[in-house]
Specification:
773 residues; mainly alpha; Rossmann fold; Four Helix Bundle (Hemerythrin (Met), subunit A); 3 domains; nine-stranded mixed beta sheet; 9 strands; elongated; binds guanosine-5'-triphosphate
Length: 773
C-alpha cells in the first residue's frame, strides 16, 4: 500500500510531520490519521471506491484514538443546537471568513466533495450556514439534511444548493444579510467530522441596490462568529496582496498571535510559484497555525452526482508536483493537508472546551431538573397521552351533553316554538278581531267563528312543522356543540375545534331531510282532521290557561316598565294625547275624503288617481302629527305611549279570554270554537308529540351514536407522530411541560456523553503521564 501512494502524498506526510511539531498537533495519533486521510484523498475514480472501502475500516478503527472527541462533541453540539441554549454551551466550530470571491465556497466544496453552495454575483450568501459534516464509515450513502426544515434526507446535492439559495435569497436585497443561521448536516463516508460556518464575504464597496451599512453589517456578523472558542479559517486569494486581506485584518483583532487562525491561500495556480511559496512561508503575516496553499478550481468535466474530491485533488496534486518549490520543508499545500489540519485543530480545540462545557451543561441540567420538580413535580407526560386524554375528554363532555339533552328537552324546544305560533295565530286571528267580545255569545253553528277556527288550525298544521321543528333541534344541537368546542380542552385547539363543528354539522345535515320528511308525513293527517279526547281537551285548556297567564304577566311587566321609565303621570298624559290625536286624525281623514269626493264629482272629466288620494291624505296627517309632537311630546315618549296602549289592550283581551277559558263554556271539546286558544294548544301538543318521536329516532339518536365514532375517525385515526406533537403543543401548558421535559432529557443525554468523554480523556492523560515521566 505504502509503495502505491504517489510521491506528492509522501511529501505531504513529511510536511505534515514538520507542521505538527510547529503547530502543536497530536503527534503519533495525528500521523496515523494522516495516513488514513491522505490516502483517502489521493485517488482516481477506481481508487476512489477502493479507498472508500478502506476508509470504512480504517476510520472507525481510529475512533478510539483520534477524532472521537470531535465526533462525540459534534453529536453533543447537534443536541444542544436543538434546544434553547446560552453562549456558555457553545462548542468550537471552524468559521470561514474571506473577501467576496476569495474562494471560500470552493474550499468548503473541496472538503465536502460536492458542489452544494449557492453561487452567483448577486451576493448569494446572506445568512451564516452552520455546516456539520458527519463521517459515516459504515454507509455508502451521501446526503444532506436541513434539521430546521424537516425535509428529510436530500441525496441530490444540486437540490441542497437550490434550497440554500432559496433560504439565502429569502433575505431581501435591502436587508442583505441576516444573522439567522441555516443549519445543514452532511452525512458521508468521505467527509471528516467537522463543524464549519460559512459567512457572507467581506465587501469593499456596496452596489447601488445594497444598503450603505452593508459593509459594517458583514463585519459585525463575522465578528460575532470569530469569537473564542471558534477556529478561524481566513481565506485569502493568492493573487490579492495579503496586506489587503479583510479576513486577516478581522482575525488579527480577535486572535493577534494567530493561535486559532488558519490561513488558507486559494487560487495558487494564478501566481508564480516563487510568489506563492513566499506567502506560504508564513513570514510576512505570521500565524501560529500557518498558511496552507490550495487550488480548488472545480474541474469542468465533472458529473454533478459524483464526488468531485478525486478529480479536484488530482488536478491540485499535478499543479503542486510540477513546481518543486511547493515540496520544500515548512510549506503546507493541498486540500488533503487542509482537511487534516482542520480535523486536528478542531479536535484539540474540542479537548480544550470539554471541561468548560461539562460545567456549563451541568449547571443548565440542574436548573432544568429543579424547574421540572418545582413546576411539574417530576410528572412525565407524552404528546400521545395528552392526545388520548383530550379525545377522552371531548367524548366525555359530549356524553354529558347527550345525557342532558334527551326527549324531554327536545319536547320542550318544539313545544315552546309551537306555543309561540299558537299565540301569534290567536293574536292575529282572534285578539285583534273587534268582534271577539261577541265570541262567547255567538251561536254554536256561527260560520264566522267556525271558519276562523279551521283557518287557524290549518295555519298551524300546514306551516312546515317537519322542517321548522327539525331545524330548531339542529340549531339547538349546533349551539351546544359550539359551546363544547369553545370550552376546555378544545379551546386550545382551534383547528380541531372547527373540525368538530364541521363534522357535527355534516352528520346533522345528512340526517336533516329524512327527519324533516318523516315528521311532515306523520303530521299530515292533522292537516285534515284533529280528533280530540276529553282528556286531551282538558289538558289543552289547562296549558292554554298557563300560556295566556304567562303572556298576561309579560304584558303587565312590560307595561310596568314603561310606566316606571316615563312616569305614571306623564305616561297617562301621553296616552291621552295619542288617543286624542288619533281621534282628530280620524276626523281629518274623513273630512278630507269627503272634500276630495266632492271635488271629484264636480270635475267629473278629471279623475284623481287613488295613489294621489292616499298620499294627499297622508300628507295632511304627517304634517299635523309633526306639529303636535313638536308642541307637546318627545317622539320617543309618544312611541312608548303607543306601546303602552297596545299592552293595555292586549292585557284586557287576555284577561277576558282567560275568564272564557276558565268558564264552563270551555269544559268540553264540543265547544271548541268558543275556546280557540285551548283547541290550538291541543293541536300543538299533538304535533309536538309526533315531531319529537321522529326527531329523536332519526336525528338525535343517530347524532349521539355517530359523533364519538367521527371523533376517532377524523381526529385521531391517521395522526402521525409529528401531528400528535403539534397538536399537544397547541396547548400552552402542555407545550411548556413537554419542552422542559425534552430539554431535561436532552441535557441528561448530553451529560452522559460528556461524562464518558471526560473519563476517556482522563484515561488518555493518565496513560500519557507515566510515559512522559
Ligand atoms: N483559478 C482558480 N480559481 C478559483 C480557485 N478557487 C476558486 N476559484 C474561482 O474563484 C471564483 C470565486 O470562487 P468562490 O469559491 O465562489 O468564492 P467565494 O469566496 O465563495 O465567493 P462569494 O461566495 O461570492 O463570496 C470562482 O469562479 C471559482 O471558480 C482556484 O484555486 N483557482
Amino acid at each position: 500500500m505504502e509503495s502505491d501512494r504517489p510521491r506528492f502524498i509522501k511529501k505531504e506526510d513529511e510536511n505534515n510531520n514538520s507542521s505538527d511539531s510547529s503547530g502543536g498537533g497530536t503527534g503519533a495519533t495525528a500521523a496515523a490519521a494522516t495516513v488514513g486521510a491522505a490516502t483517502l484523498f489521493s485517488m482516481n475514480e477506481q481508487e476512489d471506491e477502493d479507498v472508500r472501502n478502506a476508509s470504512d475500516k480504517s476510520i472507525p478503527a481510529q475512533d478510539n484514538q483520534f477524532m472521537l472527541l470531535t465526533k462525540k462533541l459534534i453529536e453533543v453540539r447537534n443536541i444542544l443546537m436543538s434546544i434553547d441554549h446560552n453562549e456558555a454551551l457553545r462548542l468550537p466550530s471552524i468559521v470561514v471568513i474571506g473577501s467576496q470571491s476569495s474562494g471560500k465556497s470552493s474550499v468548503l466544496e473541496a472538503i465536502v466533495g460536492h458542489e452544494f453552495l449557492p453561487k452567483g454575483s448577486n451576493m448569494v450568501t446572506r445568512r451564516p450556514i452552520e455546516l456539520t459534516l458527519i463521517h459515516t464509515p459504515k454507509s455508502k450513502e451521501e446526503y444532506g439534511e436541513f434539521p430546521q426544515l424537516g425535509l428529510g434526507k436530500i441525496h441530490d446535492f444540486s437540490h441542497i444548493q437550490q434550497t440554500l439559495r432559496d433560504l439565502n435569497l429569502a433575505v431581501s436585497e435591502s436587508e442583505c444579510v441576516s444573522n439567522k443561521s441555516i443549519e445543514l448536516r452532511i452525512y458521508s463516508p468521505n467527509v471528516p467530522d467537522l463543524t464549519l460556518i460559512d459567512l457572507p464575504g467581506y465587501i469593499q464597496v456596496t452596489n447601488k441596490n445594497q444598503p450603505e451599512t452593508l459593509k459594517d453589517k458583514i463585519v459585525e456578523l463575522c465578528e460575532q462568529y470569530i469569537r473564542e472558542p471558534n477556529i478561524i479559517l481566513a481565506v485569502c486569494a493568492a493573487d490579492v496582496d495579503l496586506a489587503n486581506s479583510e479576513a486577516l485584518k478581522a482575525s488579527r483583532k480577535v486572535d493577534p498571535l494567530g493561535l486559532r487562525t488558519i490561513g488558507v491561500i486559494t487560487k495558487m495556480d494564478l501566481v508564480e510559484p516563487e510568489i506563492g511559496s513566499a506567502i506560504l512561508r508564513n513570514t510576512d503575516y505570521p500565524l501560529h497555525l500557518g498558511y496552507i496553499g490550495v487550488v480548488c478550481k472545480p474541474p469542468t468535466n465533472r458529473n454533478n452526482q459524483k464526488n468531485i474530491t478525486s478529480a479536484l485533488m488530482r488536478h491540485e496534486e499535478q499543479f503542486f508536483r510540477s513546481n518543486y518549490v511547493y515540496s520544500q520543508r515548512g510549506i503546507q499545500v493541498g486540500t488533503g493537508t487542509l482537511r487534516r489540519k482542520l480535523m486536528e485543530v478542531l479536535e484539540e480545540s474540542m479537548a480544550k472546551s470539554l471541561f468548560s462545557i461539562v460545567g456549563a451543561v451541568q449547571l443548565e441540567l440542574e436548573e432544568a431538573r429543579y424547574q421540572f420538580k418545582v413546576q411539574y413535580n417530576d410528572r412525565r407526560i407524552t404528546a400521545e397521552s395528552y392526545v388520548a386524554e383530550t379525545i377522552d375528554s371531548i367524548k366525555h363532555n359530549f356524553k354529558d351533553f347527550a345525557h342532558s339533552f334527551g326527549k324531554p328537552q327536545v319536547r320542550h324546544e318544539v313545544r315552546t316554538m309551537l306555543e309561540q305560533r299558537v299565540l301569534d295565530l290567536c293574536a292575529e286571528l282572534y285578539w285583534t278581531d273587534s268582534k271577539i267580545v261577541d265570541l262567547t255569545k255567538a251561536s254554536a253553528d256561527d260560520l264566522y267563528w267556525q271558519y276562523k277556527l279551521d283557518m287557524s288550525s290549518a295555519a298551524l298544521t300546514k306551516s312546515g312543522i317537519g322542517r321548522t321543528s327539525t331545524q330548531l333541534v339542529v340549531d339547538v344541537l349546533m349551539a351546544n356543540m359550539e359551546k363544547l368546542a369553545s370550552m376546555e380542552p378544545l379551546n386550545n385547539h382551534p383547528d380541531t375545534s372547527s373540525k368538530v363543528l364541521n363534522f357535527s354539522n355534516e352528520i346533522l345535515r345528512n340526517k336533516f331531510h329524512t327527519t324533516a320528511d318523516q315528521v311532515e308525513n306523520c303530521v299530515k293527517p292533522y292537516k285534515y282532521e284533529v280528533e280530540c279526547s276529553e282528556q286531551e281537551w282538558a289538558d289543552g285548556v289547562k296549558r292554554s290557561i298557563i300560556l295566556l297567564e304567562k303572556e298576561l304577566e309579560s304584558c303587565d311587566k312590560a307595561l310596568r316598565h314603561i310606566r316606571n321609565t316615563i312616569g305614571k303621570k306623564k305616561l297617562r298624559a301621553a296616552i291621552k294625547y295619542v288617543l286624542d290625536a288619533e281621534k282628530e286624525e280620524a276626523k281629518r281623514v274623513q273630512a278630507r275624503i269627503k272634500d276630495i269626493g266632492e271635488a271629484n264629482s264636480e270635475a267629473s272629466t278629471h279623475t284623481i288617481p287613488l295613489a294621489a288620494l292616499i298620499s294627499s291624505v297622508n300628507d295632511v296627517t304627517e304634517e299635523g302629527d309633526v306639529e303636535h309632537t313638536r308642541l307637546h311630546f318627545n317622539p320617543k315618549v309618544l312611541e312608548r305611549a303607543r306601546e303602552a296602549i297596545f299592552l293595555r289592550d292586549r292585557s284586557m283581551i287576555l284577561k277576558y279570554r282567560l275568564a272564557a277559558l276558565k268558564s264552563r263554556q270551555c269544559k268540553s271539546p264540543e265547544s271548541k270554537q268558543y275556546c280557540p286558544e285551548a283547541f290550538l294548544n291541543m293541536v300543538a301538543e299533538k304535533l309536538t308529540y309526533t315531531a319529537v318521536m321522529f326527531i329523536q329516532v332519526e336525528l338525535l339518536n343517530e347524532f349521539f351514536f355517530q359523533f364519538p365514532r367521527e371523533v376517532d375517525n377524523r381526529l385521531v385515526y391517521d395522526l402521525d407522530r409529528k401531528q400528535i406533537l403539534t397538536f399537544a403543543k397547541e396547548n400552552p401548558h402542555i407545550r411548556k411541560h413537554l419542552e422542559l421535559q425534552e430539554r431535561k432529557r436532552k441535557l441528561e443525554e448530553v451529560m452522559e456523553k460528556l461524562n464518558y468523554l471526560v473519563r476517556r480523556q482522563r484515561d488518555i492523560e493518565g496513560r500519557k503521564g507515566p510515559a512522559n515521566l
